[in-house]
Amino acid sequence: MLSLLCTDFMLKQFAVIFLFAAFAVQTFNKAIVVFNYYTNTAAFAKNCENKARPMLHCNGRCQMMKKLKQEENKDKQNPERRNENKNEVLYCSKNSFSIEQYNIITIITYPRFNNSNTKEISSDFFQPPRA
Predict the structure, then answer these.
(1) Residue 112 C-alpha from the chain's centroid
(2) Is the Cβ–Cβ distance between 61 and 37 less than 8 Å?
């Protein structure tokens, strides 16, 4: 029984991690391309189109821009990936944020502390009776 629970828990954990990773890749696809460029600049520079013109200091940015354009084209071709189709619907009832005003103010007065009624407390430590 315990192994079944552990397997079920691991399956749920794997599903959550997989769905989170898929969501993150879809959301941050352009950031991933830019991160890939900065981590593998040499590979991008090797495929650079502007090798003949070193004064442009391209260093593979043209390849990065191509990949970003490809991601934009994927977004245009797939209408579910576009941001403009992701409408957020917010509902807020006026009554849910109503503030009720209470004008009842009561002042409670307490008598002053009278030190004469206190009893003398022994400062010796309590010792249990000996047998």
Answers:
(1) 53
(2) yes
Contact 57, 70 (CB under 8 A): no
Q: Between 67 and 97, whose confidence is greater?
A: 67
Nearest to 70 by CA among 24, 30, 105: 30
Cα–Cα distances (Å) from 102 to 4, 7, 70, 105, 108, in that order, read 57, 56, 61, 8, 17
- This prediction's pTM: 0.43
Count of the separate structural domains present in the chain? 1
Measure the CA–CA gap between 22 and 10, rounded to whole angstroms: 18
The residue whose two tokens read 């442009």 is 56
Q: Residue 125: pLDDT band by 50, 70, 90 thresholds? A: confident
The token pair at 34 is 């830019």
129's tokens: 């009776």
| 122 domain-assigned | no
- Determine, yes or no, domain membership for 89: no
Nearby residues of 81 by Cβ (< 8 Å), 6 or more positions away: 26, 74, 75
Domain housing 1: 1-83
